[in-house]
Amino acid sequence: MVQIILVLVLAYLLGSIPSGLIIGKVFYKTDIREHGSGNLGGTNTFRTLGVKAGLAVTLADILKGTLAASLPVLFNLPDLNPLIAGVFAVVGHTYPIFAGFRGGKAVATSGGVVLFCAPYMFIAVLVVFFISLYITKYVSLSSMLAGVCGVIYGLVLWNIPLLIAIVLLTSFVIYRHRANIKRIINKTEPKIKWL
Length: 195
Hints:
Elements: H1 2-16, H2 19-28, H3 42-49, H4 51-74, H5 82-94, H6 107-117, H7 119-136, H8 139-157, H9 160-176, H10 178-185
Helix pairs in contact: 1-4, 1-5, 2-4, 3-4, 4-5, 4-6, 5-6, 5-9, 6-7, 6-9, 7-8, 8-9
């Protein structure tokens, strides 16, 4: 039990690593929390620092989720579902202890969890994300639609633990995008210009 608790704490701490803050400050001398949406995730990094920085932050955030989900396997804890460790990383990413509990919107790190636990689902949601992004130019809408695709995929697979985790993660992603939803409805949500 102690090992499980330690691994979950470690998963949270991994998720808490503020990739956007680190890359912004180290390579661009910029605190991205003071620009754009004030968010630490990849989307605000793209808008504030450009494509290279945005890609770096997005990949780092994905890897946080993947690594956290792999911890139960690495520590040989068969009683701990990797999805649970992954959810703790997502909470860490969203409410990071290393960045004043102001983090990202849970999309990339959730994707990293899915990448480890259900790689084919990851490919499916990624395809949906980019198709939606190409058509709408809205990162927020594309992120939410990718989550909904994950839920549908989980229903088709009927893998109950995976389905529960995906429903939780997607609900969390949609909750974190509630301001974006209002802006989409009001047609004031920023569109990307690089695709």
